[in-house]
Amino acid sequence: MLSFKLSRVGKKKQAYFRLIVTEKGRDPWGKPLEQVGFINPRTEPATVDLKIDRIKHWLSKGAQPTETVHNLFVDQKLIDAKKKKTIYLSKKRHEKMSKKAEHAAASKIAAPAAETAPEVAVATE
Fold it and tell me: Residue 103 phi/psi, 5° resolution?
């Protein structure tokens, strides 16, 4: 299966990305079938240079974009779809975050109760 991938190039801490078409299981730094664009996120605004006719050609051949590339295509209006979620949490991490949120909610409920407790007047002689 063919896929669109981003391949990182550039110096350390000065990355830019090539948009390539390659086999899905192949290493993104290996030899691609074709380079169809590049993205430089370090400029303001980010530089995006895509070969739209070649991208449409590969899409017609059945190439599937990764989630990040799909979102890029949606931004560039190459495909008409909603953006995809690109960050996934493991079950263990999801459980840990939900426990932390429950603990925070419980402490917020307990804190106002402590603040609204009636004050006791102490008699001094």
Answer: -65, -40
